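re: ur question from yesterday

yeah so i grabbed the chain u mentioned. its 285 aa long if i counted rite. heres the sequnce exactly as i have it in my notes:
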Amino acid sequence: MRNIKVRLLLLLIFLGFSANLSAQGLSWEAKTRGFTQYNPFLLEVVYIGAPEKLPPLITPDHLGKAFHLIEVKAISNEAFDGHIRRVLRYKILPLQAGKHILQPLRQGQLATKALEILVSKAAFEIKPPSLQPPPAAAFIWWPLFIAAGLIPFVYWLFSREKKAKQIQIKVASPKEQALAEIERLRESDLIATHNWDAFYSQLSWIFREYIEKSGFSHALGKTTAEFLKEAQKQNLFTPEEREGLTHFLSFSDLVKFAQAKAGEVSASQALDEVLSYITKEKDGV
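ran it thru and got these structure tokens back, copy pasting raw so excuse formatting
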């Protein structure tokens, strides 16, 4: 009798675990019919799971050389059957025509199916310049063309004593561009309206764009973990800067992808952290 009770208890535990697992899910789906080279398409990843976990992210390494990741947005974050249903939408650009297989995404015991994408060739193509020699008649006119080109030069020789007013165009440095963008972000209504998703998206983009323009390649296309790992290899940050920026970038991901709670204090601290790093750097570094 005791053995029967133990078996029933184990059976109930197994059924409960199976029911909980069946309520979870991970899938992806292309929201575009037909794929054409150089024509962006949308890919949605749907994750149903524990509230404290994030869905797996599609990275440039996952896409390989056949695709380019343009952007990713969180478009849904809602309760679903005791779990959280999160939907991420990716905008992807096909670079190479042909048949491509995206390997499954995985999150613990959950996994998507491999995704087959058949990309048709673009309707246009870049043709090399013609290598045919010019017609013989062209050689008859070349002295006239040379003479016509000398006329402005001769005129310049006689009028060179007249000094024209020179208009100098100053190209803003990466540091000046970043500071201007941060000032525009500070003056926007994103903090006042508590639009934290847009605020942290723009602030992290400004920071990554500044880093990339300063010589760190592909800063905009890397995940936070990839970016920090590569930055450590290049000694891009001091230990104190790395600690602060790691917190800022990780929290930005939580706000953008997991709807983490933010506030005016944390937003102000994030601005100060980015400004502290940018203002200490020399222009062009």
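noticed a couple things. The helical segments are 2-22, 60-63, 138-159, 174-187, 196-213, 224-233, 239-258, 264-280. also The first helix runs from residue 2 to 22.
anyway ttyl
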